Each structure stands twice: as structure tokens, then as C-alpha cells.
Amino acid sequence: MPIHPTAIIDSQAHVPASADIGPHVVIEGPVKLGEHVKVYPNAYLSGWTEIGDRVQIHPGAVVGHLPQDFHFGGERSYCRIGAGTIIREFASIHRGTQPESWTTLGEDCFILGYAHIGHNCSVGNRVKLYNCGCLAGHVTVDDDTIVSGYSMVHQFVRVGSGCMIGGGARVMQDVPPFMTCLFENKVVGYNSIGMRRSKRFTAEEVLEVRTIFKTLYRSGLHFQKAQQQVIATAATPAGRRIAEFLQGETRRGYAGPLRPGDGEYTPPEDAGDI
Asked: Mean pLDDT across the stretch 207-222?
């Protein structure tokens, strides 16, 4: 694969012969590229960054650059991009801010144009972050979650696996697995469509997730009581995944139910009974 003559590649970088490096790419520092990586024109890669096999980095993207943190002192920190991930135009992914800390993305993620992943984020496999979506520092997003365009996730928030974060949402509190979050911290349903389309869940699992959604967000119970009930009764693998999330450490609390005046939400026709 070619390395364009206008590309600037640091002598510390590891670029295998199978890589395809486009015009005016800058690779600065000890960046390590896997096999069959394609870097499009004008992308910038820097720092102690590891790029997995078959990753695509599109024009103008910035990967592994300095964190946007006033407290960053210039110490060594890291960024890792999993195999098969696609990073589209002008997206930015910054490395960790504390010494020896990491920003990590899993495999087969899709990061669309102008999206931002801040320092010390931990993003799972097959996550989709759509155009202009923004993850602040120290955000955790688990596998198979979609964060829609122009959504913002506050620092230290956890978003569980299989969630759907709607367009333009403002997420400042944790969202349990398989839930749909809209507006400002409002869980409006469970991601039944995503669960069915994935073909990885049984009918019993989908049913239990629906029951858990109703317990947490429709029963009228105080959230802590509903949380304890879910932890005590979860029976399927999907249900236990929610229970484990609810037992994890939270620094921001949990997103709440939709209230009158929060906004109008109409479930998709094939979303099932929520």
C-alpha cells in the first residue's frame, strides 16, 4: 500500500507496509498502526496511540491529540482504537489526561463526522456516535449503543450497552442498558427495536427488559426501591446485565422518567408495548 510523498511520518511511528497513508497526513510521535489501516488526506495522528487492524481514518480527523483539559501537564498518556473502527471526517478523539491513563474505543465502532470523544473515555464494541455527537471526559459507553447526532454526554456519565440516545439529547446522568434516552435525562422507553434487530436476545430477555423499564420508570416507586427490586429479581442474561449496571458505582445518579411538559414522545410503530 502507498505512503503519499507529502505525508509527514515521525521516525518513532510504526507504519506497516500494508498501511495506506494519504496526502498531507501527519503522524507525530510513537503512533502504532495495525495492518491494512487507511488514513485519508489531512488526518492527524499523534502521541502514544495504537490503531487496530483495518481502521479507517477519514480526512481531517484528529486521533490521539492532547486532551482538552486545563489540568493536563503534558505527561505520557494513551489512546487505543479497536480493529475495524471507522472514524469519519473531522472527528476528534483525545488521549488520556492523567499520567499513564487511556482513552479507548472498541472494535467495529462508527464515529461520524465532527463527533468528539474526550479524554479518558471508554467506548465499547460496535458503538455508533453520529454527526456532532459529543462525549465529554471520563464517559463510559458500553457495547452496541447508538448516540445520535448533536447529542451531548456529560463527563463521568455511564451509558449501558444496547442503549439508544436520541438526537439532540442532553445526557447528564447514567442510562441503564437497553434504554432509550431523549431530551434532558429522560428515559422514554426500552430499545426493543435494537434488541430484536441484533438477533442476540431471546423473547424472554426482551420481555424482561420491558418489565424492568416499567419497574424503574413507570411503577411510581422511588428509584432506589425500584432499583433494589430489579437487582433482586433479574433472571435472564439481559436482565442481569441491567442489574449489574445498577449495582455499579455512579457519580452522576440515574436518568429519570418522562414527566408532563418534558416533551412529546411517540414510540415507533414496531416498538411493542412500553
From this structure: 94
